[in-house]
Amino acid sequence: MPPAGPRSGDAIFASVERVNAELFTLTYGATVRQLLTDLEEVEEVNKQLDQMGYNIGIRLIDEFLAKSNISRCVDFKETADVIAKVGLKMFLGVNATVTNWDAEGTCCSIVLEDNPLVDFVELPDTCQGLHYCNILSGVIRGALEMVSMKTEVTWLRDMLRGDDSFELQVKLLKQVPEEYPYKDDE
Amino acid sequence: MIGVGKIKQYSNVLDRPLSKGKQEVSLSAFAFLFSELVQYNQTQVDNIAELERRLEDAGYAVGARVLELFCHREKGNRRETRLLGILSFVHSTIWKVLFGKVADSLEKGTEHEDEYMISEKELLVNRFISIPKDMGAFNCGAFVAGIVRGVLDNAGFPAVVTAHFVPVEGQQRPRTTILIKFAEEVLAREARLG
């Protein structure tokens, strides 16, 4: 029997199988480099990384829900907190904080203190337009879409571009009402 | 176009201290990423050989960096110069850090002098992979073969490295064998060194 209440990000991270972060970092680096070689245009690479992230997000949400035991969030504020405290922790082992809420409570920033994607990375002059971590914004967008939230996720600050931290802006565009694709008698 | 952008880098990656390499991420995070890498490469090729070559290339890039990093961190900027030394470095040190365990076995080929095999019952990258029937002998281990080739090549041991499934008696899943075939010059040098 799984424990009744929701589990903390730390507890889940401690209990799941883990791999060396450098293997992950370098594999991601190899992926980005392959995309740069194939697609040539930095903008295209940003798009492809976002798409890959989205593909991951729509699958990852199942594992997230299964392992975290978290039930429906009451509002978008709680959702953002859960992403920062549980989601990022259980998959990447990093801590994040939520700040910069707008008055309506539909737009906030997730600030990453640590980001395993960027170890050893330096953007050369030729790739300054690259959003190196764009896969991450795609993951969040994809995962939220699977729980009925259309969002727009953009990078506001990026340490690879000289900022002091990583800041992701998550903006709730609309909450899609749940529709059941099947009828009761089918 | 590559080449646009004005923002300059402020922090230099070389000024930062090198991490100890003890950090971890969840296995799922890696598996998701690797799956996307494979799927993306599938869209770029029309045959299995080409797909394996592309995965190997991606792995090679990892291997080259792993060698540099580990030689600096674990061996005080020294690297192995002898054949058996470098093989055991791959089989033990590199495997242990990257995959959390020493590889199951390291053997010398019985038919050819220049062949060595590293075998793993359940290779990390193949954990969540099942190969569709129409993809025949395709093995995602090509990525790991690429890592091994990247390490060996950059250490001065050029070799052809390939990944193969080998059925194991009484086991449902085959193990993966990484076959290393060294270039002639490597064996000639070994012979000279005695």
Task: Give a written overview of the molecule.
The complex is a heterodimer of chains A (186) and B (194). With 186 residues, chain A is of the alpha+beta class. Chain A has 5 helices and 5 strands. Chain A has a 4-stranded antiparallel β-sheet with strand order 2-3-5-4, with helices on one face. In chain A, α2 packs antiparallel against α3. In chain A, 44% of the residues are buried. By secondary structure, chain B is α+β, with helices and mostly antiparallel strands. Helices cover 43% and strands 15% of the residues of chain B. Chain B is built from 5 helices and 5 strands, in the order βαααββαββα. Chain B has a 4-stranded antiparallel β-sheet with strand order 2-3-5-4. The longest helix of chain B is centred in the N-terminal third of the chain and has 27 residues. At the A-B interface, β1, α2, α3 and α4 of A face β1, α1, α2 and α3 of B. β1 of chain A pairs antiparallel with β1 of chain B. Chain B: Belongs to the TRAPP small subunits family. BET3 subfamily. Chain B: This is Trafficking protein particle complex subunit.
